[in-house]
């Protein structure tokens, strides 16, 4: 099984897409035309337009937050929460299924 990401919009709509191990949560969203993740910098961690809220049960599936990502999360359009991450930094593992919620806006 490949990786699977379920994106939940701020209004509650859900979309699920398949990804591969090594893909980022952002890359899967962009490849599938998900408009709620802007990803302006393309994944180079120089903007915060791929901000997501990771389901609490899935947080342990990802590497810990880096100092740079932590600083970038202070610049998001919607206030960060304890489960906030930049989706470009969330790398999928084989056979994982994760769930993220996108904020009302990225800009």
TrEMBL record:
Residues of the 2Fe-2S ferredoxin-type domain: 3-106
PROSITE patterns named in the record: 2FE2S_FER_2 (PS51085), ADX (PS00814)
SUPFAM superfamilies referenced in this protein's UniProt entry, alphabetically: 2Fe-2S ferredoxin-like
UniProt keyword Iron-sulfur, yes or no: yes
Cofactor: [2Fe-2S] cluster
Record InterPro entries: 2Fe-2S_ferredoxin-like_sf, 2Fe-2S_ferredoxin-type, Adrenodoxin-like, Adrenodoxin_Fe-S_BS, Beta-grasp_dom_sf
Pfam families xrefs: Fer2 (PF00111)
UniProt xrefs under CDD domains: fer2
Name by which UniProt lists this protein: 2Fe-2S iron-sulfur cluster-binding protein
Source organism (scientific name): Microbacterium soli
């Amino acid at each position: 099984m490949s990786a699977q990401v379920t994106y939940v919009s701020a209004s509650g709509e859900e979309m699920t897409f398949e990804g591969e191990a090594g893909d980022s949560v952002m890359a899967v969203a962009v490849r599938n035309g998900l408009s709620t993740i802007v990803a302006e910098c393309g994944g180079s961690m120089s903007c915060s337009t791929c901000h997501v809220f990771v389901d609490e049960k899935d947080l342990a599936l990802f590497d810990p937050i880096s100092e740079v990502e932590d600083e970038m999360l202070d610049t998001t359009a919607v206030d960060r929460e304890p489960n906030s991450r930049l989706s470009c930094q969330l790398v999928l593992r084989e056979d994982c299924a994760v769930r993220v919620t996108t904020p009302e806006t990225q800009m």
